[in-house]
Amino acid sequence: MMNELLWLCMLMLNFGLITLAWYFWGKQGLFIWIAIAGITANLQVSKTVILFGMTATLGNIVYAGSFLATDILSERFGKKSATRGVWVGFFSILAFTVLMQLALLFAPAPSDEMQIHLVAIFGLLPRIVLASLAAYLVSQSHDIWAFQFWKKRFPGPLWLRNNLSTGVSQLIDSLVFTLIAFLGVFPAGVMVEIVITTYLFKLIVALLDTPFLYLALRLRPPEKADTPGGE
């Protein structure tokens, strides 16, 4: 049960930090968090753990939490700001990956002890990197579109558009990543299992972020927030 308790603690900490970033720095704080989440998730995803009897990657919480940040941007400032946040995250992941791949090309000093560990962490196959970037861009773009779509259809219940947009977007993310990364590598049955288990954890995170969305918007009301004209 230790992993499960740590997972819940990380979940609450993740949402709490997003809320604090929004409260203290508004829109810019969310942009910063999206960049942090993109880099952190791509580091944590290299570690697999057992959660509730299933094998899962550790980056799901931080990555799925970035959808809370874009939903806050979408609700308060609209599609333009949320899309900008997505591109901030995409650029951060891409730049970090390129810089670390370049760092691996340097010949280590005879006394160096870190190269082997850096290779183990950052020596990613191009296919995995492509899968991660494609899944991020497609799923986040859908999340923004769907959030605005449901906001126009059902302008009242915030929880409804939050869960409808994020829930479907997380499924798209799992499908795109798995197909690009593992098609032809694993049998179809294994790929289906990967999609189901990955999506299950992301869906749990998506459902649990709803109270924090309400809290974030209450903590920083419109009169204290940046104005859409600040675009």
TrEMBL record:
Q: Where in the cell is it found?
A: Cell membrane
Q: Which Pfam families match?
A: Vut_1
Give the GO molecular function terms. Answer: transmembrane transporter activity
Topological category with respect to the lipid bilayer: Multi-pass membrane protein
Domain of life of the native organism: Bacteria
Q: What is its main location?
A: membrane
Can you tell me where the transmembrane regions are? 5-25, 31-64, 85-106, 118-138, 171-190
Q: Which Gene Ontology cellular component terms are annotated? A: plasma membrane
Read off the InterPro entries from this record: YhhQ
**Which controlled-vocabulary keywords does the entry list?**
Cell membrane, Membrane, Transmembrane, Transmembrane helix, Transport
Q: What does this protein do?
A: Involved in the import of queuosine (Q) precursors, required for Q precursor salvage.
Assigned protein family: Belongs to the vitamin uptake transporter (VUT/ECF) (TC 2.A.88) family. Q precursor transporter subfamily.
Q: Which PANTHER family match?
A: QUEUOSINE PRECURSOR TRANSPORTER-RELATED
NCBIfam families reported for this sequence: queuosine precursor transporter (TIGR00697)
- UniProt-recorded name of the protein: Probable queuosine precursor transporter
